[in-house]
Amino acid sequence: MRFAAICLALPLFAQPALRWHDIRTLGVQGQGWKDTKHPFDRLPAKAEGVVRGPVWSLSQDSTGFFVRFNSAASDIRARWTVRRERLALPHMPATGVSGLDLYVRHNGRWRWLANGRPEKKTNEQAMVSNWTGSEREYILYLPLYNGVESVELGVPEGAELKPVEERRKPVVFYGTSILQGGCASRPGMAYPSIVGRMLDWPTINLGFSGNGKSEPEMASLMAELDPAAYVLDSLPNLQPDEVAQRVEPFIRTLRKARPDTPIILVENVVYTNAEMVASRASYKDKNAHLTAIYEKLRKEGDRKLYYVAGGSLLGTDGEGTVDGVHPTDLGFLRMAEAVAPVLRPTLPYPTRYRFRAASSRSTPNPGF
């Protein structure tokens, strides 16, 4: 019995000893401000008490945060602690709300590799095991609807994690629960992140569930940033009259601070059950108001204003959401395929990837 016990224990001693690295040493990307109250907040500390309470609370979610690094490590483990006990939502799995998502550059393209599946506030999980070969480039995405207290990556002694420095200006996305990532199955499937991989371009996600209301306080904060482009996708959180009242001043605030920065306006998605549920038909009025604002500003001479029509955002088969509003991974892929072709020509440098042509338009289509 004693000999058997020793034999069973031998594989444990054969496991490689790990050295743990705080991901902040790799440079967390997707964060617009560094002067934050908490290391993983999305808004600066000065925003507390300026933006509404729900916006401030949601800014503690880590959606859109990621790290890029190179490593030849044969094994990579992740250890992370989330800020809230709630790991999942009724219509969104824990892997998306509170999990991690790892991609690797494979044959010149970003490919999904592994996800971290949360079971409690603090979790540890193998992401890469016994992988031989040369150095590879990785992206690790953080949770969409929870915040993180800490995230660490463990690699065998002697292996390195090398940060990938990003010198390009990011694209800043602003909007609602849809933009934040509800209801993606894992963090890398929020559509701003998909667009980021399609174009191989850094992104910042300022989605605020139920609270992307195009308020002047958020416009002023966003005007402090110096992005490659802004993507504004707030209509699902606005009533038709609010679109008419708020969106134009929001755009003008950004334009005053950033006269040459492209601004992409995204129509309200066509809710997949709108033909059957009368209350969902308001998207038509909201999109009509957005079209009028776009045409007005273009006539005034704003040539850096672009437009994504809503008809193709979720497809036409009704299969792109969990509830008629919030996309599944399929819906998010379709949204990315509609937004990326409009965004791509506005970026200052050539982008690396091609993507499937979508039936999106860069001009308004009031018929949707």
Account of the protein in words:
The protein is 26% helix and 22% strand. The protein contains nine helices and 14 strands. By secondary structure, the protein is of the alpha/beta class. Strands 5-4-7-2-9 form a five-stranded antiparallel sheet, with no helix packed on it. The chain has a five-stranded parallel sheet with strand order 11-10-12-13-14, with helices on both faces. The protein folds into two domains: 16-163, Jelly Rolls; 171-346, Rossmann fold (3-Layer(aba) Sandwich), CATH 3.40.50. The N and C termini lie far apart (74 Å).
Can you tag this structure with a few keywords?
368 residues, alpha/beta, 2 domains, 5-stranded antiparallel β-sheet, 14 strands, globular, disordered N terminus
Residue share in helix: 25-40%
- The CATH class of the largest domain, by name, is Alpha Beta
Return the CATH architecture of the largest domain: 3-Layer(aba) Sandwich
Q: Which series of helices and strands comes N to C?
A: HEHEEHEEEEEEEHHEHEHEHEH
Q: Quote the beta fraction.
A: 15-25%
